[in-house]
Amino acid sequence: MSLMWSTESIYAVFLATGFTVGFGHCIGMCGPIVISVSLQLKDRPSFFPQLYYNIGRTITYSLLGAIMGATASFTRFASQAGGFQKAVLMFAGILIIVMGLAMTGWVPAGRIFQNAPPLAGFARAGFKRILDARRAVLFLPLGMVLGLLPCGPVYTAMIAAARMGMEAQSTLGGMLSGAGVMACFGIGTIPALLLLSQVSNVKWLKHRDLIYKFGGVMMILVGIYFTWKGWTY
Amino acid sequence: MDSAASRCLAMARLALGAAIFLVIATAAAPALAQNPEVRTTCNIHQGPCSAELAGRSVALEISPKPVKAMEELEFRVTISGDRLSEAPYIDLGMPAMKMGPNRVEMTRQGENTWTGKGVIVRCPSGKNTWFARVALPETGTAEFVFDVVY
């Protein structure tokens, strides 16, 4: 396998791919998460949390690209990461459900985890931190975790990163070029998701409580769908 | 700001939001919609698939079988007629969604037989219909639509 594009142009190709896929595929697949985060923030500013979320996602893509480039193999990752990605998909689903429950106001955020078993302490702390997040930078780790969600176009970019590794003169060279391809792809997807997050921001509406309630119910349904998808992945 | 002006501003923002949403929805719809007219043209698990292109027969075989996503696959293209001067290549994608550029480059194995390695990725949506577009430089493309195993 070799690359049809020159090393320089492949970065531009995947930046453009990220941009176009962002406005199509990503809005459909990752849109529910972005909208959930935006709605869950309610009256808090959402631009920087969303920016950090997207930066986190891009950091994870770059790390995955570095691994692909260093190992020069996509299938090695594919054979080992399935179970982990299933867990991330289910985590995203549960997270959306929890954010939805908290947003409807039917179950206060603090009470959602009141009866959680002690062993779930770590997850409970993580969820509470996201729900109560006051600092935008706290959305960076959330983006990093959700950057591991299974996604077709991400896999395609990973294949390109692995091919860069095959063509590289050294492991370090492969690592850097693989990371570069995936970073370009991730950066390309940011405008679409950031725009979606700002469009779904309804804090300027006067009578928004109803929208929050409706949004909360939608989030719960989407979260159930994500969890089911994760279960069957 | 008086209430009329703030209402006006709210309406303007609502209109702007709706316009942006419509632009996004228009851009996203073709990528998200499952085209009901998309039909598989061959069963790639049973054997090679064939198509006619500019008076040539183009046969595509993918192995190992059954053809599974997320595994390394060998693509074999056999073309009838005169010897090709330039190598063909295969673009992989989904009819229902844009998956990014995934190209399989081919190397010559015989007079007009070419092979290359590639991976068909898995779409978490569960849709498993893929196409392989075999491109013969300066001639055209032959498209094969088939289901893969997830």
Number of strands of chain A: 0
Strand % of chain A is: under 5%
The largest β sheet of chain A comes out as: none
Poorly predicted residue ranges of chain B:
30-34
Question: Low-confidence runs of chain A (pLDDT<50, min 5 residues)?
Answer: none
**Mean pLDDT over the residues of chain A:** 83
Main structural class of chain A: mainly alpha
Indicate the structural class of chain B: alpha+beta
In total, how many beta strands of chain B?
9
The first-to-last residue Cα distance of chain A is 28 Å
Number of helices of chain B: 1
Percent helix among the residues of chain B?
10-25%
Principal-axis shape of chain A:
elongated
Q: Could you spell the SSE succession of chain B in H and E letters?
A: HEEEEEEEEE
How would you explain this protein's 3D organization?
The complex is a heterodimer of chains A (233) and B (150). Chain A has 233 residues and is mainly alpha-helical. Chain A is built from ten helices and no strands. Chain A is elongated, with a radius of gyration of 19 Å. Chain A starts with 6 loop residues before the first helix and ends with a helix. With 150 residues, chain B is an alpha+beta fold. Chain B is elongated, with a radius of gyration of 22 Å. At the A-B interface, helix 1, helix 4, helix 8 and helix 9 of A face helix 1, strand 5 and strand 7 of B.
Task: Describe the structure concisely for a colleague.
The complex is a heterodimer of chains A (233) and B (150). Chain A has helices at 7-29, 31-40, 47-71, 75-104, 109-112, 121-132, 139-146, 152-167, 171-199, 209-232. Chain A has 233 residues and is mainly alpha-helical.
Topology, element by element:
The complex is a heterodimer of chains A (233) and B (150).
Chain A: H1 7-29, H2 31-40, H3 47-71, H4 75-104, H5 109-112, H6 121-132, H7 139-146, H8 152-167, H9 171-199, H10 209-232
Helix pairs in contact in A: 1-9, 2-4, 2-9, 2-10, 3-7, 3-8, 3-9, 4-10, 8-9
Chain B: H1 3-32, E1 49-53, E2 56-63, E3 72-79, E4 89-93, E5 102-105, E6 107-108, E7 113-119, E8 129-136, E9 140-147
Antiparallel strand pairs in B: 1-2, 2-3, 3-7, 4-5, 4-8, 6-7, 8-9
